[in-house]
Here is the input.
Amino acid sequence: NLEQSRRAYAAAQLDIVYEVTAEFYGFLRAERSLEIARSAVERQEEAESAAALIAALDSFGQGGKDSAGQP
Here is the structure.
């Protein structure tokens, strides 16, 4: 009957709204996770660059010798 069809239609609309909303927030969550991962990679790369710079400065300070005093 007509009333049953209207209820089914309204329920289907609510299901669509729920699914779209859930997917949207899932997308936002994934996007934020990607930003966090990129930031972590950037920090790691900066730490590695700083470590390489420190090693180079240490080597320069030792006149090009390694930690055992060898050239």
In short: The mean pLDDT is 91. Helices lie at 2-61.
